[in-house]
């Protein structure tokens, strides 16, 4: 499965290609799905470009995207959108339009309660496990681990003082280490492996070699495999499909 991550916490200051408004997100999702994306991950944003969990912001993004695509659509629940765990939980419970799934970062405070609230509402859980955090251990001990939709093995954050997550040379090794840690955490749950910035394409190649789900989009990288700036998410999806259908990389 190839997922498109449309925008992430990036803003127009990062690139003019990053979709922000519901209309822009819908257009980007439609183009990405036409290019081969099978799932959509989005960060709904306020008019000033900040990630938001407010019900009206989430509803506007979901309704716009679902009007033009018929694949599953998921959203973030990242703590940067609402740092207080209780307020974040209240936001989720106030949603009037529900996503198909939502990512829950297991190293963030209140992850289990947040995931439980989402499951109660029928929303699938993408368990976000960031490299270099306590997320894997916390997830392994969670009673909710067997109930998640998939595990996101995210080569994003690493131990303080290292760049193994975003460095092209070291990201694949960091990814393998993370996968090894996750091996017994949720048996039978699909794993989506992805990287960030300089590590995005090397980790995507590794995911393809290992037969894992993966993702690409302007959240994870602004650049094509050859280093050129991507025009849009659809161009990244086409490039990912080409990379994954090419000659196998040593696994």
UniProtKB/TrEMBL annotation:
Gene3D superfamilies the UniProt entry points to: Aldolase class I
InterPro entries per the UniProt record, alphabetical: Aldolase_TIM, BKACE
> What GO molecular functions are on record for this protein?
3-keto-5-aminohexanoate cleavage activity
* Highest taxon listed in the record's lineage: Bacteria
Task: State the protein's name.
Answer: 3-keto-5-aminohexanoate cleavage protein
């Amino acid at each position: 499965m190839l997922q498109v991550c449309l925008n992430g916490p990036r803003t127009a200051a990062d690139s003019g290609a990053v979709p922000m408004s519901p209309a822009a997100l819908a257009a980007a999702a439609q183009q990405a799905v036409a290019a081969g994306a099978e799932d959509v991950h989005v960060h709904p944003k306020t008019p000033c470009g900040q990630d938001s969990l407010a019900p009206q912001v989430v509803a506007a993004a979901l309704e716009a995207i679902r009007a033009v695509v018929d694949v599953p659509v998921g959203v973030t629940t990242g703590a940067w959108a609402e740092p207080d765990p209780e307020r974040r939980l209240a936001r989720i419970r106030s949603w009037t339009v529900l996503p198909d799934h939502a990512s829950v970062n297991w190293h963030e405070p209140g992850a289990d309660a947040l995931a439980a609230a989402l499951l109660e509402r029928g929303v699938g859980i993408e368990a976000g496990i960031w490299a270099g955090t306590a997320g894997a251990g916390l997830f392994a001990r969670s009673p909710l681990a067997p109930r998640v939709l998939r595990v996101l093995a995210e080569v994003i954050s690493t131990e303080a003082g290292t760049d193994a997550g975003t460095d092209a040379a070291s990201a694949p090794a960091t990814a393998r280490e993370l996968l090894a840690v996750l091996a017994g955490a949720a048996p039978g749950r699909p794993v989506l492996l992805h990287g960030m910035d300089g590590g995005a394409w090397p980790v995507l190649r590794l995911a393809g070699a290992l037969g894992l789900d993966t993702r690409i989009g302007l959240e994870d990288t602004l650049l094509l495999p050859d280093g050129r700036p991507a025009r849009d998410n659809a161009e990244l999806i086409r490039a990912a499909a080409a990379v994954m259908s090419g000659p196998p990389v040593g696994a």
